[in-house]
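Page 47, continued from p. 46.
Same chain as before, 423 aa.
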Amino acid sequence: MTMLNVDQVDTDFANLPSIGQLRSAAVLSRHLRFPVRPRRIRIKQGRSAIVAWQREDAGRLGALDDWGFTAVMTSPDKLANAQRRAARHGQELTVHEAADPQAAGATGAVLISGGVLADPRIGKHIARTLDHLGGDIEIIGYNPARRLLLKHTPVDGSPEFVRIGAGSQRHLAEAAERWQRAQLPSLPVEFIGRRHTATRSPWWGTGDLHEHPDPSVAEEVGVIVAELHRELPEPSSERAVDDPIDQAEAAASALARLLPERAADLDELRAELRSRLQGRAAAGGPREIHGDLSPDQVLLGHSECRIIDLDRSAIGPMGMDLGRWAAACRRHPELHDLEQPFLDGHRAAGGAGGSDVDLGAWTAWALLVAGLEPWRSCSETWKDETLRIIDAARGVVRDGAVGDTAHAIAADATAAHARGEST
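Result:
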């Protein structure tokens, strides 16, 4: 696919100009006048888009200066507000392009860039949090306008993990307390400051299960998650997970806009999932769930593990956790050997078996809702990756393959291509 075609696909998908520029390292670097890599893009169709970038020579400037954002804005009022907020923290926004809204055919869109302290939604929360921190700071993750993740090493203390969000993090602290009361292995979460938008936890372990795959740990995680699923929560509409069928519908619609040539396959997939999950989505009743379970959420250290990132902890069907784990193992061939041990551990600890939860449908569901991840993460090979995810989801629905009979996505995609079902 040529650069021109890629840019048009991105523009059509987002209903905004310059989206291809935001996702291109080369074009973005020309705008910024220093080499960067785009890391994560978020869009509001027809309204705005923002991408996080990291300098190629990261570490030269240190602290917060190696990361920033570039955004497309279509509202003059929002641009003015963003400039005022940035100025409050001594930051400037660079305007790269501006179209005259009165010109024929012009969109009125503006392309702007700034550092993380100028982020239009979380810049003020970052500045307030920094007032409480001293010592060394390293950015380890940035989702623009949503969250910033830091490793903070105090001058006279141990390293800690800091999360700064756009809104209250009370739900995260409450989830950590529930896990602690249930004696499930996670990490304590404390607030930084009084606004509850930033939290800290100990910096724990030597890596995660994605970096160091270990089937025995995956089995242990299955046991832990089964214990979580045994918890019978009090009914709470505030903590109920969003309807998974609605999530599948939204994901399929978005993927069909991005890859219209696969619209028929996606329609078939969501119809099958609706049929299989309707009425069975709540198999086993509403339970405590992690909500975003995958091997990279499992920290390793000292022959123990800790399960982290509880910000999507909710009340919902346990199939969501099982499907997300299986889907993560399908998306990354190096994790394939972690799928069956996890399921074995879950079953051995009294978790759901095949008769209780449609594991094939939930795995396909989780693959589908993750289908936009390659595009959002600005992968240069997003199209091939997304097609493989779609083909894998269709293969699971068709064959009902989970656990021992599972194949890595690459193998699923190869078989689908051989049958003439892809692109």
